[in-house]
Automatic annotation (TrEMBL):
Catalyzed reactions per annotation: 2 ATP = 3',3'-c-di-AMP + 2 diphosphate
Gene Ontology molecular function, alphabetical: adenylate cyclase activity; ATP binding; diadenylate cyclase activity
Domain of life: Bacteria
GO biological process: cAMP biosynthetic process
Chain segments annotated as transmembrane: 12-30, 37-55, 61-82
Gene: dacA
Domain DAC: 83-252
NCBIfam families: diadenylate cyclase CdaA
Name of the protein this chain belongs to: Diadenylate cyclase
Keywords from the named record: ATP-binding, Cell membrane, Membrane, Nucleotide-binding, Nucleotidyltransferase, Transferase, Transmembrane, Transmembrane helix
Length: 263
């Protein structure tokens, strides 16, 4: 009896490394585009590919020629459409090198209490400012980003690049401050900029009482990896936006836990 040939199943170390690198690449790309408009763009491109295949199989020459012309510039179109995502991807690679990740893992394994304690020290001025602004019903929008994108924020903001402090945050959002309109962006343990104009969400299912602050906070969390803390000017209620979803009526204990996890 003739046996089966399983030579094609032989896997070398190079093949294993290849699979791991591809898996990591897919993981990074997924993290970049999940809950963003890029997902819808990819879905649209997939639909076009399916239509292209069906048209080609049915020998619909006119439509096939039109789609072929469109697909011939597909790579250039991809670069133009996904330019912000590609830029963030390169930033993520640059700021997440092996040495930095290795240092972080050692910290988590052997110094997690110190890291948590240091993080709470960083968060305290923000929590204190939120308490004061909630009490006085001062409207505020504070955005936290992992990687500060100069192109996205700096062009529509006033650069501050200052140490985080309760008084500075209160001063920025004080009603008669020239910087109170727009958002404060916090990154790299600094208040990087203020009075930032952010993209509004296209979600038409939000409650009608949501104003521009809520829509801007949700919008920036949809298109980037940012999280946003929103304080309502009308009610003083605190909301927390992440990945296009908003959590309402957040207590200070919950806010501390959320920021300790995400900031």
């Amino acid at each position: 009896m003739k046996g089966f040939d399983f030579d094609f199943l032989k896997v070398s170390l190079t093949d294993v490394a290849d699979i791991i690198f591809v898996a990591l690449l897919i993981y990074y790309i997924y993290n970049l585009i999940k809950n963003t408009l890029a997902v819808n763009l990819l879905l649209g491109m997939l639909i076009i590919l399916i239509i292209w295949f069906a048209v080609d199989q049915l020998n619909m020459r006119l439509l096939s020629t039109i789609i072929n012309k469109f697909m011939s510039v597909g790579i250039i179109a991809l670069i133009v459409i996904f330019q912000p995502e590609i830029r963030r991807f390169l930033l993520m690679i640059g700021k997440n090198t092996f040495l930095q990740q290795n240092k972080a893992w050692w910290g988590y394994l052997f110094g997690s209490k110190n890291i948590e304690r240091d993080n709470l020290v960083r968060i305290k001025p923000i929590i204190d400012a939120c308490k004061s602004m909630k009490k006085s019903r001062t409207g505020a929008l504070i955005v936290f980003v992992k990687f500060y994108d100069d192109q996205l924020f700096a062009n529509s903001c006033e650069i501050i690049d200052s140490k985080i402090s309760k008084r500075l945050l209160e001063s920025i959002f004080q009603k008669y401050s020239p910087l109170h309109d727009g958002a404060v962006v916090i990154a790299e343990n600094k208040i990087k900029s203020a009075s930032c104009i952010l993209p509004l969400t296209d979600n038409d299912k939000l409650p009608p009482q949501f104003g521009l602050r809520h829509r801007a906070g949700i919008g920036v969390s949809e298109t980037t990896d940012a999280v946003a803390v929103i304080i309502s000017e009308e009610t003083g209620e605190i909301a927390y936006a992440k990945q296009g979803r908003v959590r309402m009526n957040v207590s200070f204990g919950e806010l501390e836990k959320l920021l300790n996890k995400d900031f």
